[in-house]
Amino acid sequence: MFPNNPATGKGLVVLGIVPGWGFNLPTAKIGNAFDAMNDDGPRYQNSLMSEEEFEEATDTTVVEGDHHDYEGYLRLKYTTWKSQTNTDAIAELNYTTNWRLIRYADVLLMAAEAYNEDGDQQSALTELNKVHERAGLDEYDAMDQAELREAIKKERQLELAFEGSRYWDLIRWGDAEEELGPFGFVSGKHEHFPIPQTEISSNNEISQEDQNPGF
User: Fold this and answer.
1) Which domains does the chain have, with CATH numbers?
2) Strand bridging mode 73-75 / 48-50
3) What pTM was estimated for this model as a whole?
4) What is the signed CA dihedral for 175, 168, 103, 93, rounded to 10 degrees?
5) Distance in angstroms (rounded) separating the CA atoms of residues 72 and 31
6) How buried is residue 83: exposed, middle or buried, by Cβ count under 10 Å (0-12/13-18/19+)?
7) Residue-by-residue DSSP string for 128-170
8) 92, 7 contact by CB (below 8 A)
9) Phi-psi region of 164 (alpha: psi -120 to 50; beta: other; left: phi over 0)
């Protein structure tokens, strides 16, 4: 994907990133979502880097080719940085990447969503703006419930990018079929996981008829 080889690409080294396998690549959609929000401050800078920004920062050129799932962006969130890693030891055993189980921003956005659905738009706006302004953006003006709902959705998409919340948010909002249908999501089925067949076979109190719909 990047010069030479993803595992040894000199561009990544210039950035201070420990090269390795790359998974969970950003889509152009998330890059466009940041652009639409005019969010190019600290939140964006710690989440993504565009191909153009990469080439400018490293003075290297992205190798053209058939790169699986690559849509012009490099993910920076959850990246391993050389400055945070003891390279004298086995690097893979001392990566210091923080895995976010829950963050204060998530709590604030959950509160905003709950307030909004309960009809308290002013409290919802207050909590939403705490996250929005922290990202270096101007505060939101007063909105009605439907407008606030959309603003909260967009804020969660950007603030919690790559943190494992997006799928469950789409399920909760009823937006999963529209967003994920082209990727195989089936409404009425994929909102749940299948009950493992081994559990059905070993439990006398359930049968195949108790399996979740569609499986």
Assistant:
1) 10-82 (no CATH), 104-183 (1.25.40.900)
2) antiparallel
3) 0.86
4) -130
5) 9
6) exposed
7) HHHHHHHTT-PPPPP--HHHHHHHHHHHHHHHTTTTT-HHHHH
8) no
9) left
Question: If DSSP codes are grouped into helix, strand and coil, which group holds residue 60?
Answer: coil
Neighbours of 205 (CB within 10 A): 5
* 8 A C-beta contact, residue 16 and residue 2: no
Task: Give residue 96's pLDDT.
Answer: 62
Q: Report the alpha-carbon angle 57-40-101, nearest 5.
A: 100
For residue range 107-133, list pLDDT tens digits in order: 999 999 999 999 999 999 999 999 999
| CA 186 to each of CA 39, 177, 195, 207, 212: distance values in angstroms, whole numbers, following the listed order | 32, 7, 17, 23, 13
pLDDT of residue 11: 75
How many residues can be counted in the chain? 215
Exposure of 157 in the CB half-sphere (CA atoms within 13 A): 22
Query: Would you state the structure tokens that stand for residue 107, as one six-digit string?
Result: 């709590």
Torsion-angle region of 4 (φ positive above 0: left; ψ -120 to 50: alpha; else: beta):
left
Q: Would you state the pLDDT for residue 90?
A: 65
For 63, phi then psi, to 5°, come to -70, 125
* Beta carbons of 109 and 131 less than 8 angstroms apart: yes
pLDDT band at 68 (very low <50, low <70, confident <90, very high): confident
